[in-house]
Design goal:
By secondary structure, the chain is of the alpha+beta class. It folds into 2 domains: 138 residues, no CATH class; 71 residues, no CATH class. The chain contains 8 helices and 8 strands; from the N terminus they run E-H-H-H-H-H-H-E-E-E-E-H-E-E-E-H. Strands 1-5-4-3-2-7-8-6 form an 8-stranded antiparallel sheet, with helices on both faces. It is globular.
């Protein structure tokens, strides 16, 4: 777990904040690579960069193959998997029907004092919480309690999936709460989610805050 504060609080969690945008793991691959530091060593993002280069050279099938090789890596982070699928969709490839709609992550946006808190939970048990005040919690450490809470939030969106609509932009909502679920097929948003979703998001948020305070000795 890491915590962060930002003296320019209006930037963290704002519409143009790259940290917030990265929670959705859906930006065009070229945009992703602009903010990733590569050193030439093998790894998922180097393979994504290699695939982008191949695509730029017109080698579409080779680019797809390169991206698929990333999906075969063990212990692949959920957000990386989502970015890879974003790249594959850019190249015209769609996931198989059965796994296409599996919910791999949820981004929950809550209006607070004219701004928004943003909570993200992923299938692998990682989580992000951006508070409207300018503080953030980044959770990546393996932890069964946090993972269970993340998976509960993902599961809570399933009953409402039928009324979700595609989300084409990660712009801040105009009003109200929003739950966006992240799939291999893209993003889908549920405006004003049911209480089940709100309760699951609140439980994860409270636990992340509790862990952060404990780590700081509060």
């Amino acid at each position: 777990m890491t915590t962060s504060s930002n003296t320019e609080a209006h930037k963290l969690g704002s519409e143009g904040d790259p940290i917030r945008q990265g929670l959705f793991a859906c930006e065009p691959i070229k945009e992703l690579l602009r903010r990733v530091k590569l050193d030439g060593r093998p790894g998922p993002f180097q393979s994504i960069a290699d695939a982008t280069k191949l695509a730029g050279e017109g080698k579409k099938e080779e680019a797809k193959s390169c991206l698929r090789s990333v999906l075969a890596l063990p212990m692949l982070e959920t957000r990386t998997q989502l970015w890879v699928w974003s790249g594959l969709r850019e190249l015209g490839e769609q996931p198989d029907p059965q796994p296409a709609w599996e919910i791999l992550g949820v981004v929950f946006e809550l209006p607070v004092q004219g701004a928004y808190d943003t909570l993200a939970a992923y299938q692998d048990g990682s989580a992000r919480y951006l508070n409207f005040s300018g503080r953030a919690i980044f959770w990546d450490a393996p932890d069964e309690t946090i993972k269970t809470l993340c998976q509960a939030l993902l599961a809570s969106t399933v009953p409402a999936a039928s009324r979700a609509v595609p989300r084409a932009s990660v712009s801040l909502p105009n009003s109200g709460m929003h739950a966006t679920f992240l799939t291999r097929s893209g993003m889908f948003v549920i405006p004003n989610p049911r209480q089940l979703v709100v309760d699951a998001a609140t439980s994860l948020m409270k636990e992340l805050i509790r862990r952060a305070r404990a780590a700081q000795g509060q």
